[in-house]
Amino acid sequence: MTDQYQAFAKSPIGKFVIKNLGLPSPISLDRFESAAPVVQGAVLVGSAAKSVFSGEIAQVLSNIHANAYAGNNTELQQAAAKAGLSLSAFNDGDKESKFKAVVFDASGIQDSEQLKALYAFFNPVARQIQTSGRVIVVGLTPESAPTVKQAIAQRALEGFVKSVGKEFKKGIAAQLVYVDQDAAQNIESTLRFVLSPRSAYVSGQVIRVSKGAVVDVDWAKPLAGKTAVVTGASRGIGEAIAHVLARDGAHVICLDVPQQQDDLDRVASAIGGSTLAIDITAADAGEKIKQAASTRGGLDIIVQNAGITRDKTLANMKPELWDLVININLSAIERVNDYLLSNKGLNKNGRIVCVSSISGIAGNLGQTNYATSKAGVIGLVKFTAPILKDGITINAVAPGFIETQMTAAIPFAIREAGRRMNSMSQGGLPVDVAETISLFAATASTGLNGNVVRVCGQSLLGA
Ligand code: NAD
After folding, report:
1. Is 69 a catalytic residue?
2. pTM
3. For the Ketoreductase domain, which residue ranges apply (predicted)?
4. What are phi and psi of 264, to 5 degrees?
5. Do 231 and 188 belong to one domain?
6. Ligand 1 centroid to 405 CA: how many Å?
């Protein structure tokens, strides 16, 4: 689907009209291109005194060959030297330098008074962040803070980051990464994601990193040798997920209903994958998925993306519409996961990634069935994560307004509102959801378990 308003906004007359009427002005967001550097521009780094993750942050910046800058900060300079990161000096009062990303380690903030460190670091550079830039605050998971005062101060970071996401505009995305005390070594996949254009439509989010195994990966092909199943892969978001996982090196088994066989074949042949034409609600769906992956070393990743809407107000909803939506969007996912987990259907260090929706967070008129199913998916992730074994993880993405056939069917006025009511003033693309799924699917994402990340451009709904 094309966004005609965005095209109009780029034209000379469009710019004039939009400026004078105070309308939202969506910019063209940077998106990931293979072989491009993780960050295309300078990165400013800072830290509060006694922060504990600066060493790992410096290591990641060194690994991605970042063009990094820092002010006069001895702790940071020592951490950078240890990580082999060369830091250029950023001088107080420099109003000329521009940054593509600004990263601040706030983990050392011990109490509410010390939150001033956020102000002191970000206030002078708030106007020096480029379009499609990134603001990343790394904090200590409040629940793992040693004192109540520190837990409170760390929890406060969320309000700061979410406000920056709303304030900075120009396609700048702001994220908070909470890291457990003992999980510093597990932040690389997350930091690479939030720094890069792969997180184009993710903003105002909190990603929690806990301790997991440390694995060596080829970052150019982070899913090399893995076998993935993507449900609902014949079109829309599922098609984009299949493409991104294949780009990252996985063999993708594209699953959809038999009626979609032609489109399934088209997607699978474009990415060198295979197909599995089944209905995900069938009683033997879990067994069929296991079998399909068995000739390829077993299943490493399952992306539970297939989903439908059947919108009606509750008063007008026939019981079969309720049943259909709950069954496809929630019960089938539970059944397939249960089958795979209790029948050795998922390899060690396997990944389950589910697709929820901001409707499941905010609720939506005419969507009692859909929102119930998608809130259930969030529950599924939350309550399954702690009981998983063998390094298996489960996470979910919650898309907001994504330009697909599903959203093309929404009446014009509601569609336009959905598109603009977010910090990016535009809808997301299927690839934005797919990139976030590939973060959770990544072999290196051992420390991500039980997360729900919204891919919604920081939509106002349910925020
Ligand atoms: P879509 O309708 O374009 O694609 C969904 C795919 O799932 C279709 O190919 C369909 O055939 C398949 N499917 C449906 N029932 C199935 C079944 N029983 N077995 C196997 N496959 C089945 O939708 P989309 O916009 O690409 O959405 C993908 C997912 O993202 C869904 O879970 C949806 O709820 C969610 N989502 C979408 C948006 C959005 O803005 N498009 C927003 C939030 C969440």
Report:
1. no
2. 0.95
3. 226-400
4. -60, -45
5. no
6. 9
